[in-house]
Structure formats: C-alpha cells, structure tokens
From TrEMBL:
Residues 30-49, 607-644 are annotated as: Disordered. Pfam families: CTLH. It comes from the Eukaryota. SMART domains: CTLH. This is CTLH domain-containing protein. Residues 616-644 have a biased composition (Polar residues). PANTHER family: RAN BINDING PROTEIN 9-RELATED.
Amino acid sequence: MDSIPVNWDALDSLVIDFAKSERLLFPDDLSSSPPASPPVSPSSSSSSSSYRSRLLIRQIRRSVEAGDVDAAIHQLRLHVPALLDDRRIVFWLQKQKFIELLRRGTERDRDLAIECLRVALAPRALDAYPEAYEEFKHLLLALVFDKDDQSSPVAHEWSERKRLDLAGLLSSILRAHLHAYDPLFSMTLRYLISVHKVFCCCQGVSSPISDLTERLLLEDKDPQATPQETVYEAPPFDEVDIQALAHAVELTRQGAIDSLRFAKGDLFQAFQNELCRMKLDLSILDKLVHEYCVYRGIVDGVSHSLPDFEHNSSRDCSSSNIECMSSKLSDGETSVNNADAEGVPESYADSTNIGESRFACEMIDNHENCSTSEVNHQETCCRRSRRSRNYAIGQRRRKRWRGRVDDLEYAAVDCVEDTVQDDQGSKKLPLSENMNHVDNHKYEVILEMRELASKGMAAKVVEEINAIDPDFFIQNHNLLFQLKQIEFLSLVNSGDHAKALVVARSHLAPLAAKNQDLMKPLKETLACLLKPCQDALTKGTPLPILASSLQVAMGWKLGIEEPQLMKIVRATLQTHNEWFKLQMCKDRFEQLLKIDQLKEVDSPLHSIPAAKASPDNYTNGSSQMTICSSSKINEDGSSPQASSAENICDESAIIKVMEFLALPRADAIHLLMQYNGNADSVIQQIFS
C-alpha cells in the first residue's frame, strides 16, 4: 500500500484545534502580561460554548448509563428544557426510571415504581407515539418477571444494554439540538478510518494499521436519532444526496432518508450527525494526539532544569572537550545574536534544547572530533552549543499538555475551565514508550533541523547534520539529493548560476551516478537553468514533505519512531484516494472535513509559489456527466480514459441503478458500461 505526500502542516492545524477544543492544553501563561481586557473572538466564544455543551452531553450520558435517570432529567430541565417538550424523550426516560426503581429491589422502590407507572408513564403512553401504549403494557410484565430471568419476555428491558442505547440516543439528539459536534479532527479521523476499513474489506487488502484502528474506532455506534412523525411530511430529497450519505457512512437507503429528515434536509448536518454516532476510544485518541504534538514540537516534551543540565553537562564531557564547553559558557549570554549572525533566525535558536550542548559533546567524544586536527568540526560543535541557552525561551513558547479533565460538574465549568493550573492535579497522559526513553536534547536537534529544512535553508541543514553525524547522508542519499536540489534551485533563483553549477557538479551529479533513479530528477533540475529565474523553484521537492521526511529519517537514526498518528493518516489518506478512484467520483465531504487540505502539498519558498502536488483529479460525483471506460484507472489517479472511445453515462442513470439495485457507485457504472449507459436496460436485464 503505497503512501502519498501528506500536508503535515494542515494536520498540525487540525490537531491543535482539536487539543484546544477539548481543553487538552493549558491556557497560555499569564506571566507574559496579556492585555487587561482581551477581546473575545466569536470563534473562541463558539468553541467554548461547544465544549460546555459536549460536557453537558457526557454528563447526561453517564447519568443514564449509571441508572440515575432523575439526575439526567434534572440536567435536561436545567439546561435544555425545550427537549423535554418532546413526548417521546420523556416517555423513554420514564420507562427507564421505572426499570431502575424495580432493579433496586426494596419495597419502597417498588412502591415508587408503581407510582411512576400511574403518574408519569400511563398518561404519556396514550400520546407519546403510536407504539407507546403497546410498549407500556409490555413493560408491566417487569413487575412479575425477575431481572435475572434471561428467558423472560422483558429480558431486554432489564438488560443494561437498554441503558446504553438510551444514553446513546439521547446523546445523538442533544448533539444535533445543541449543534455540539465533536471537533473537526475527530470527525475527519472517524471518516478516514471507516473508509479505510471498507476499502480493505472490499478489496481484500491487509491493513497495515489494523492494530491501531480496531482499538481506536469501535464497532459499536450510538443509535440513530429519528425525526418526529410530523417531519415525515417533508418534501422528497435529492437522490444524489441520499446515495452520497448512505455510502459515506454505511447506511441503508431508508436510514439515509431518516437521517436527512432529522436534519431537515441538510446533507452536511446529517453527515456530521452520523459521524458523531461512531465511537472513538478517547483515551487512545488523546495519547496519539499527545505523542504527535510532542513529535512535531507543538507541546513540551520531557523537560530538563537548567541547574541539573549544567551538572550533567560538565559530568558528561571529557577533558578533551573543556575548551568546547568553556566557549559555550562564555558566550551563552549573547547566543541569540550569534545565532542570528550565523544565518539562523532567532526562532530557530529558540527551539533548541538546553541538553543540546551535551549531545554535541557526546558526539565529539564518540567521533573524537574535538582534537586540534579537526578545528572546523570543533567550531561547529561549539557554535551549536552556544545556542543551547535559548532553549528556555523556545520552551515557553510551546504549549503545555493538560490532558482530559472532563469530570467537572457542568455548572462549575464556566468558572474553572480557563483558570485550572498545574498544581490542581490534572490528568496527564503518558507519552508512548518511544518518547519516554529518548534523550530530549537529541530530539530538540531534530526539531531544529526540521525547522531549517521547512524554511529552505538546505545548505545549513546539510552542514549541521554532517557535524552531528557524518554517516547520516551516506545512509540517506535521497534526502541529501533533495536538499542539494533545493540549494541548487535557490542559487538559480537568485541568478547565481556559477555557484549552482558547483553544487550540481560536487553533489547532485555524484549522487545520480551512484543511483540511476536520481538521473531523471537531475536532468529536470538542470533544465531549470534554461528557464526564467522565477520558475526555477517549481521543480524542487515541496518543503513540508522534505522537512517531515528529514525529521522521520533523523528520528529513526537516533531511536525516535514517527508517531502512530502519522501512520494512521498516511495510510487512510492513501486508501481514501484509492476508494474514490474505484467509485469514479469525487468525495463530496472531503472539503467539509479538510481532507483536501491534508492532500494538498504547497511549499512557498522565498514568497515564490513552489510545485504543488495536487490531489488526484477525480470526476465530480455531483456533476451531470461521468466518464465511463473499460480501461483501468490511471496510476496518477485521473479518471479512466477509454482506449478507443468514451461512453458517457448520465449521472441520473448512475443514481437510478444505484437506487433500484442497491449497488455501490462503481458497480452501477460497470453495469451501465455493459449496456451503453442505459439504466432501463440494466434494470430490465437484472429483473428479467
């Protein structure tokens, strides 16, 4: 299963939004003197409201799952009284309350259960919904059949599964009523994993991430919220919308219609309702997000205190490194200026770790490069060491991980959610094992190299990595070629063709001579000499891809594996591409979930647009015409082209076959291809 380029910056944005929406990060430090009265943006206010609503839904859900129906009713009456105007909901809650009173088994609770029958259930059974009275009479059997009797006609009513179903149904209704949808990243992940599972199942492909996806996305779903009977008079929906929803979230046609009715015909709201019914294991999701945030430098990793660092540094460095370390100590106060003078922006210097100098000395010890015979390498190590004191600044700029703290009382959320501090005993999830046992100073070096690469500072990256590990590019010659290619193109872009040719002769040509696969990229790179300067940079590897590839390669070299979330996103995006190639249409929901942005790799360099690895060019599934062909799908993902002639299938014919035969889109198209696009002929042949 080949991987595709992924826009990790777009994923960063989604993950950060998720972490903020779920209050997984601590608020920014107040010590930075914020404005006295900071303005409240509509988006932040909306996010805060959505969080409180989701917290309320979780609290009501837990109450019902625990059998405390009165607490759930109290919360509904207090915060969402309009929902209690729905007679169905009140009837369902009172039925469950009756069962819970009987479950307790005392005489007093039995009397309360009978009173519940008389006062609450019997009157509502007459007009809650058409089947309510029959359900009421059937429920009376619980008075005479024991809860432990699995063969009784009311065993289902006694089952704790009934609690879970009611709690899930209430969650679905409340979520739509309050527009309290899960963060976008959560929905995107659900959708990508579900498409991945369907693709692997239909194509008989073994999933490389099945161990993760099976634990993360649970098979169980919340019950579907159904509309009240008065909504059934709504006008019919577009069949294209019905089929799109049904196949996107694996519903029957009637299930898709019910979902659209509940959403009053809004396709995208119905889609979000259905996605949020899918259950994610939040503890696993939080751990994946935390691991990813540390890996990408979004949140703090393992911290080191300055005194402890200095003690360890002096202990770890050998006597041959005293000159190197003393240079660091003497110049520590001016390290920001030094970093900037060397061509590295202050932001890069800020991101380096205090422990980085110790790492530099360890590398010196290992390679014996601090001797007088290797002065240049010693100077490089010392220069990197001088920037180490800036780590404290960079560390403060990163977010601090708080973890999920959602067991607060809903009424108290407003006053505590933005003031919780470290000493309040917040829940903190551990990093994965590969993060726990990695020296943080090495990890910070990797982050710095990624930042340099993402800014196109290829020459600086090569110089620094060679100083750290001279063998790295011997084992990763493709990365060296791509970095030198960026350096070459930058020189061409600036008009310095002479230096560009020196780079090509010294690095690109020898690398291509050793690896014939690089010969074609070399020719394309050299061809940039013939083009205007402003077009030179369009041939280089997109910088986000190059920077992330460099980070992964350096991580493996130093014992840091890429986070599991990256594996999930890479694999699911690939199968998402393949699935919609098979369907011969464009995903109508990928823009809503920002899947298109995850696939869109755009790397501006020096404010000039770079090459854009655009997503596959699908035929639009909502358009009026779809190209059908008997040929295989092209490797580049474009719509299949017929070898001799193209048969044009009308979109309405495709939908008609899908509807009548309950077929996936791809199967409907293949059938139409056999009958020249005539839907009536296909249906007649199948039923004849």
